[in-house]
Amino acid sequence: MIESHLSLLIVVLPLMTAPFVAVLPNGRLPWFASMLVSWAILFMAAMQLINVSNGNIISYELGGWAPPWGIEYRIDSANALVSLIVAAIAAVTLPYALKSVAKEIPTHQHSLFYAAFMLCLTGLLGIAQTGDIFNLFVFLEISSLSSYALISLGRQRQALTASYQYLIMGTIGATFFIIGVGLLYAMTGTLNMMDLAQRLPELYEHRTIHTAFAFIMVGFALKLALFPLHLWLPNAYTYAPSVVTIFLAATATKVAVYVMLRVVFSVFGFSFIENTPADELFLLLCVMGIVMMSFYAIYQQDSKRLLAYSSVAQIGYMMIGIGFGTVLGITATLVHLFNHALMKGALFMAIGAIIYRVGSSRLEHMQGLAKHMPWTFMAIVIGGLSLIGVPGTAGFISKWYLILAAIEKQHWLIVGVILLGSLLAVIYVWKLVEVMYFKPASESAIATAKEAPALLLIPTWILVIANIYFGFDTELTVGTAEQAAKLLLQGIN
Amino acid sequence: MSVFLLYISIGNVKGGATPIIAEGVSLYSNPLPHVLILTAIVVGVATTALGLALVIRIKEAYGTIEEDDIHNQDQSL
After folding, report:
1. A167–B57: do the CB atoms touch at under 8 Å?
2. Which of A49-63, A70-84, A235-249 is predicted most confidently?
3. What's the pTM?
4. With an 8 Å Cβ cutoff, are A163 and B54 in contact?
5. Which residues in chain B (20-49) have CB-CB distances under 8 A to chain A?
6. What angle do CA A471, A225, A252 make, to 5 degrees?
7. Tens of pLDDT along A368-425?
8. What b-and-e string marks burial along A204-229, b requiring 16 or more CB atoms within 10 Å of the CB?
């Protein structure tokens, strides 16, 4: 019986857990409850992926109301992959959270922290699972509002202004999205994504549809931090508590990329975009984003900020696949979506471990820590290698498919930019490695720095090993991504 | 606000009655946009509340809510 309701349970379970956790007494209970729930959701997401892995599509009607009047949860390979990565990151982050949150957030806020975390998880999973475009807006706002609250809990007071800046920009993004949805509804009378896909082709020439598309694109470009709408990201990632940075960096922008894929390919259909300059505009913004953001990352003095700019550059890589619109392109986007979540998750976890021991993420405070925190250092090295795209790591697989997609489309400039991005990544990863390994440690560091506690190290290394594993066994990532790409390009089925 | 009006204005059907089932009435205005707007209003209220709570915290932390002063205070660190 549970099997049939799986797709809804994945979203409802964290939603119900959040108020439950909020009223638990501060201490270990909220953490433990959240962790158990996140593991249960990971199990369910994995089962869901197995169910759709042979091209099946699960269609779940909420409340028994048939679509298009009722809300429908429609799961295909793309959805299931995104749900899996969100659930996996949450499941790995929560064990990490016990010590990290205890150090960075005052005890009287712990229950509320975990409640907000569960709500954020609900929102992100809801966005991934739903097949109704207004339901998507609701879950988008649930995840956004809880992110604003989570980010504002950072230790430094800049966390408050960072969260406020993100709130304003995020609300503008969501408002643009809702205007676009309203225009679509006015023209077609439906909110169900598959139904929209059926009704839109005859309206392609209508200016309202073009306007709706533009609004939705800009709204979500802001949410996924596509250059030049990325301005909220560096501050938000730098000043948020470590656990929040890990979780948001590895999931929030990825889910927004998935929504972009869904809207561009399933709802509108790529033939719509080919007639507009939108796909070339995407490619231009991505190229500028990759090059400029990688350059920015090189000049940063704070490791979290460096990785934040690197994240914006990686988002540029993901959007290139959407700009191409081929099976290889979308496969590359989805594979990089999955792999980047693993990479950045591992890197931010390692930085979080450093903050736990040393109290700061600035490069000048990280000098010489390699001898005192060898496991953390190795995690940063391997995560960095994955970011660069060295063979043997997951990052290589993503870059490989991106370059294949670019060669197929004969876009030699993009091939060059992807390689240039990797070279720039070498520079900023080397910056991290050089500071930790080659510079002598300061006195205070030698006094306080020991290896990070096991509870922080084990989740970090789970992600690091996942990085290496998915660099060799790509059946899960590439297989699912390719299937998803074919389904997305088929459009209505 | 304007987004709300955009949605509700779509819902009106010319010559339609209020969407409550009544005898002898066959043409109703569309109630769905109203439902969507209720959701959006609630979301808007929550966002505004969160934004204002953040402003209060910023005032406590910085002593001012003028962006220039906050920027100067951060730069001087």
Report:
1. no
2. A235-249
3. 0.91
4. yes
5. 33, 36, 39-40, 43, 46-47
6. 60
7. 888 888 888 899 999 999 989 888 888 898 899 999 998 988 888 889 999 999 999 9
8. eeeeebbebbbbbbbbbbbbbbbbeb
